[in-house]
Amino acid sequence: xxxxxxxxxxxxxxxxxxxxxxxxxxxxxxxxxxxxxxxxxxxxxxxxxxxxxxxxxxxxxxxxxxxxxxxxxxxxxxxxxxxxxxxxxxxxxxxxxxxxxxxxxxxxxxxxxxxxxxxxxxxxxxxxxxxxxxxxxxxxxxxxxxxxxxxxxxxxxxxxxxxxxxxxxxxxxxxxxxxxxxxxxxxxxxxxxxxxxxxxxxxxxxxxxxxxxxxxx
Length: 217
Description:
alpha+beta, 37% strand, 18% helix
């Protein structure tokens, strides 16, 4: 083998080696995880919904207890709850691969025999895939006062936050949500003020139910 052929062979080997290295680098870069673009982020603000036609959907009624009660009562006529300070936080998570419209309303539960209050108008939030949102007692009071600005609330309230999961398009299958309520309670001081130290906590999954299509106010 003469000198020229040897040089040609060595050059060919070097070029092939460089090509192989480049292909390996491209495959490695392609294999890396790429964070998906946030094309379906949830809306930042609730939108009040007027009279609407809700399709068949999953619905959730999350119980809430908010505020303080210092009523002791005389057995067997017990108060609504034992004296204490109570808080609720309701977490909503969208486990679906597509965005979901989440409608929320507050149904205040008043003692039997008193004049009931009409549930609030629904407000709508679009929740993107794998996004979550929480609603606490402060937000529940805000939703009540949005419909009833002059409503005077007692120190302790209870009721239900009703949550409806509506698909974005009619072609989308019914979308379930993860709804979990967190309840905490703390004792009151002798002066009737919240002491701030949590004495109990409960985490409860809120079951959903399929409900038919209907027109709601």
